[in-house]
Amino acid sequence: MGDKRFFFAGGGTGGHIYPAVAVAEKLGKLEPAATIHFFCSARSIDAQILKQTGFEYTVLPAEGFSVRLSKLIGFCSSFLKSYKIAGELIADSKSAVVTGLGGFVAGPVCLAAHKRKVPIALLNVDIVPGRASKIIGRWADEIFVQFEDTGRYFVRSGAKVNVVGCPLRSGFANPEPNKAIEQLGLDRGKKILLITGASSGSENINTAVCSLLEKLDAFADYWQIVHLAGVGNYEKVKGRCGNAKISYKVLGYFDDMPNLLAAADLAVGRSGAVSVAEYAAASVPSICMPYPYHRDRHQYLNAGKLAEAGAAVIVDDLPDEKKRAERLWEQLEELMKDEEKRRQMAKACEEIANLQADLRIAERLLKIGR
To answer: Are residues 362 and 269 located together in one domain of the fold?
Structure first.
């Protein structure tokens, strides 16, 4: 099986790449002779993640779809270029399997595989699939989803739909919270409030939290804050929080989320598909602030699964900064004070966490490719 190649296509956010990396790592353990290759976007987050894995990757010029004429032309041109690049690499493999991860990178790669009759799998961890995933589903041999509700979107695809959960990095299976505490120089005697806007950060979450500094200072004796602001927002948040009485660690980005989430006593963040799976796996109570501008509101639906289980509460990301901060504070103050409530939420996380998705998908990909 030395000539077997597994291609993964997707990028633009950590939410596309991290689940695929988890599956790829498991494939490498199950079948060391196989080679693994990623197709990703030109966005910096993709290379930042993939460089640390050791996997081969190819940056494609693919761009997101737009109905505006000027951008539509760019989309079509970049799609064709990406299709050609991917097709040449796939054609060079005697035996290959392509896994699409959704988004604008996956489209041209999966079309190239479809035209060459190469087996295709689709990994869709959001509760509502995007446009690209719905199209790729028509070509796929097998579709892997996190939520049972997602299956109804692929009824007409003819592909086998497997509800497997969301693949997570191996660190979530055996986290070492003390490593994150030591690496960040945190106080072992204080509880940790983690603020995160996922891999790119969230300006709305940042401004809401920063406006609550005086109120948060009242918790300085018992709590400390780690704030993942996003690389582009780091300086702004650092400037606003520099004089906080409560211990306040601001980072642009932090890669070791398994250990950091395991160390956290409470998290405030977005509710992308990977984020909600990570909160559950780390057994960390969360205040989810879903991204409000997706037409299908899939982050609200993702967060709803945690809230239904009693593992999270939802706060609307309102356009009015003052009202947004007020709503956040209502939940934040209550949960920072109520240790028993946090304990119950952590227990609920344990009951819904799924740490076997990477293995189940890797095993299926090996069978698809035989």
So the answer is: no
